[in-house]
Amino acid sequence: GPELETLRSTEVAVLPKDETWPFLLRFPISAFGMCLGVSSQAMLWKTLESEPSTKFLHVHPATNHVLWWISVALMVVVSITYLLKVVFYFEAVRREFHHPVRVNFFFAPWIACLFLVKGVPHPVWEIHHAVWYVLMAPILCLDLKIYGQWMSSGERRLSKVANPSNHLAVVGNFVGALLGARMGLRELPIFFFAVGLAHYAVLFVTLYQRLPTNVQLPKELHPVFFLFVAAPSVASMAWTRISGEFNDGAKLLYFISLFLYVSLVVRVNLFRGFRFSLAWWAYTFPMTSVALATVLYASEVDNVLTRSLAVGLSGIAVVTVTGVLATTMYHAFLRKDLFPNDVSIAITRRRPKFSKILAHLRSSSSDVKELVLSIPNFSSNSKQGAYCDDAGSIYKTRGSVGESTVAQGHGRAKC
């Protein structure tokens, strides 16, 4: 599949590999993963400040303010850059949309905006419901497009393109349901939660099965396996806001996310031995989401163990985001290798040369002529002998113009 960052034998690169491409061509849609990681941190610190289970930390509101404004600035920069790519290199954007991994990151800008609205520092005015409708409209359109392909499209059905990044196509529904319920809406948050839950169940089973039609992800994309944790943890928070309490349904989803988190952490070999890239931001958002869910769970089941778990997972998420952000800045501004040539979108199928096509057409037309000549000559041996003489002269003529020797042998065998 194209998610492998190497070309097939039937594909060639459109752009030269030995030259550095223009920056906009090298700027992928997955850059919005940075916005997801930082904006979710703003939401985490706001939750640490307001939830009863973490009141003893005495988190200052300024932390949430600083992180929120950093998230807004990052979102503006990344959005403007990618909009310029849409204007000047629309074909590259179209190829990303048809890429089985990149297409899921088209949900990321809208999820990041939902995080920003959810993490806004204690507004003095109430956020209007129209903001939620505006942000959820693109997610609904993408749902209809992507889920429809999963169900009915031949080359893009889920059994062929399933990979961990597909969780982003599900998480958007849960984040929307979380924010909508927080803003006082009722029916539509339940609708998006139901849609997300149904497709999450199908995706979860498909990814666990690892069907033969699935292509294994390259090692550089292994961080996206942490997206397994994101969907159930955000779903548990969404159901908590919809139902008004951290009930058994929310606990069920939370325990699934906690188990997946631990099962991935203990598999150290799966996440080492590859160079840094933007894919590392896939660690940040899932770790922050499970920390958020743990803080809410600790507020419902308040004891030393749950508080320690909430503080521990929040600390791991903060350290992870800080480390990945620092490494990103190092590769972007010092080593200047954060955005290499994007080979995965600059590919085309290798077409056969014109001479081969012409030879194939000549061979096909010759076979048709032989078939037409042979049909009326099955009745008598004398006619068959005459046909052999004619066929011999035909093959002799063909041999003079360099036609297939296999066809000549076939004709002589009939004679």
UniProtKB/TrEMBL annotation:
GO cellular component: endomembrane system; plasma membrane
Membrane topology type: Multi-pass membrane protein
Main location: membrane
Source organism, top-level taxon: Eukaryota
Location of this chain's protein in the cell: Cell membrane; Endomembrane system
Listed InterPro entries: SLAC/SLAH, SLAC1/Mae1/Ssu1/TehA, Voltage-dep_anion_channel_sf
Gene Ontology biological process terms, A to Z: intracellular monoatomic ion homeostasis
GO molecular function: voltage-gated monoatomic anion channel activity
Pfam families: SLAC1 (PF03595)
Parts of the chain that traverse the membrane: 23-45, 65-84, 105-124, 130-147, 168-185, 191-209, 221-240, 252-271, 278-298, 304-326
Keyword tags: Cell membrane, Ion transport, Membrane, Transmembrane, Transmembrane helix, Transport
Family under the similarity heading: Belongs to the SLAC1 S-type anion channel family.
PANTHER family: S-TYPE ANION CHANNEL SLAH3
UniProt protein name: S-type anion channel SLAH2
Species assigned in the record: Aegilops tauschii subsp. strangulata
Lineage, highest ranks first: Eukaryota, Viridiplantae, Streptophyta, Embryophyta, Tracheophyta
